[in-house]
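Reading is simple: each integer encodes one residue's backbone shape. The lines below illustrate:
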Amino acid sequence: MMFLVDLPRFLTRYFPTFMGGIFATLASLACAIPLMMDFYFSAASLGEQATWSVLGGMAITLVVVHCNFMVVRGRPQWVWGLVGVLVLCLLGVLPTIEDRPHKVIYTLAVLFPLLGLLLLNSKRHREMRSKLVDIRHQREALKSALKARRKPR
């Protein structure tokens, strides 16, 4: 079986878009979590807010990492987990305008989820997911061919 993937060309074409989506998601988390904790849990102490911010940020970061790992493994439906995180960040930050947050942080907290959604919906990201599915099919065919070549004992 011949693999039809030239790794340097593949990475040159798709890696910036893939990493841009990851960084936009993580940056939107970094901007959204403090704004949302201050707005929605203003009655909590600063220590409690910090603790829950860190724990929540770690949990959501694990979700983002797992979703991206599954996309790389050729499972494009996991991109919906990333979309969910970005939409959650965007919709969670929008009402915080009432609290008059810092303008730059608020603008970035709105901009990064929109940028992440734009990157995930871009033609290049969709092409990459399609090629990763093809690579997964080639990998599965190779596994089954190797399994069939082994002699049963």
Observations:
- Helices lie at 7-40, 46-72, 79-93, 103-120, 123-149.
- DSSP finds five helices and no strands in the chain.
- The longest helix spans residues 7-40.
- The two ends are 25 Å apart (CA to CA).
